[in-house]
User: Which sequence fits this backbone?
DNA sequence: GTCTATACTTCGATAGAC
DNA sequence: GTCTATCGAAGTATAGAC
């Protein structure tokens, strides 16, 4: 996966990812995406048709990739408590590779999915579905305590998504000397979360 | 606190809360806020000066209120593990009273605080500061296990904020029969989170 | 304090030549 | 596939009468 794709559509998607993550659907500017991707606007519309279609193409791609990571773990062997640990780690790794992902996820939650079609929503739905499957496995095999799958999904993923998205805001609060929120690298946050979720979810 | 304030500025703030929560700063429309608040646009600008000033006034108000709730608990008597439980409950109650709050919080995290001034950022900073104080108390008195205060803050609040904000998206996923995420009322989610955080944070 | 009308800007999208 | 030029809609904000 090259850092600077030579093909226009790929380069557009890459720039669009940052633009939509940083500014949201309403705040994103097609002009800016085209300029940063070094294509003119007409070219962008030629490839994607509309701002909304570009947004959907991007989200479908990223949600599908994220879903595949989780599904691979859920469908693999091993006890559910181990899978929970691995799934949190996989999400942390996915965010490390795709820094724009958590902000997009956050914004789509806030927007209520209004810009998405059924296909993109289905790709998004794979995430809670996969976690739900692991939780049900764990409760059945008694490696996890009885948990509501939806509650478990939010309890394990919301912290990672909000922490990763919140880096710029933490930077502002820290640099303005309002709170010092600078001393926790992402990898350590993931470890701490894994430990908290292990204590919270494991049957005993 | 009347449901339909008679004074224009109050009514504008109330409508603006829903508009900014539903659509974000960039997506919010001053025209729509004015129309729904039954004032004309010139009146809105007369009272608040600009879209940004209106946004800041709203966020300053809501962050201050939320911060006061938490501070009251943190400064009160009792062991820290109990305060953690109460603070989660207080946040759940605050959201029940101000349904727009979690979406605003989520969007501001994603926007990186770019629309806020120092005063509003300070009001926001009170939240992690207060949780940090409770965590430090608990670690000192050995009612909580050693925890990074920042990690603790995100672990306990991110789930509540994302779950509450995500109601419309869950509704879409459920009604389109992609996942059934409809069977978990907010109060039960808060209880489940309190139990998970108790297990995750308590020293033993 | 309240209104109508409008100035000014920006945005998404397209026409049409090459 | 690629470009320049531009259109029409929509947005924030204000002027100026009452």
Assistant:
């Amino acid at each position: 996966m090259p850092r600077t794709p030579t093909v226009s559509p790929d380069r557009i998607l890459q720039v669009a990812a940052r633009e939509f993550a940083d500014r949201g659907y309403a705040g994103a500017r097609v002009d800016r995406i085209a300029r940063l991707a070094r294509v003119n606007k007409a070219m962008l519309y030629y490839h994607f048709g509309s701002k909304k279609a570009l947004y959907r193409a991007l989200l479908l791609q990223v949600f599908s990739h994220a879903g595949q990571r989780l599904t691979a773990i859920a469908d693999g062997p091993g006890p559910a408590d181990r899978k929970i640990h691995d799934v949190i780690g996989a999400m942390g790794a996915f965010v490390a590779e795709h820094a724009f992902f958590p902000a997009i996820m956050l914004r789509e939650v806030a927007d209520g999915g209004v810009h998405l079609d059924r296909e993109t929503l289905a790709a998004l739905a794979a995430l809670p579905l996969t976690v739900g499957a692991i939780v049900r496995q764990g409760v059945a095999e008694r490696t996890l305590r009885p948990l509501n799958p939806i509650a478990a999904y939010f309890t394990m993923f919301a912290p990672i998504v909000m922490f990763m998205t919140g880096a710029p805001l933490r930077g502002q609060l820290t640099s303005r000397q309002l709170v010092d929120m600078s001393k926790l690298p992402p990898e350590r946050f993931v470890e701490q979360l894994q430990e908290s979720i292990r204590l919270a979810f494991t049957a005993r």
Summary: Residues 29-31, 41-42, 45, 50-51 of chain A lie near DNA strand C (CB under 10 Å from a C1').
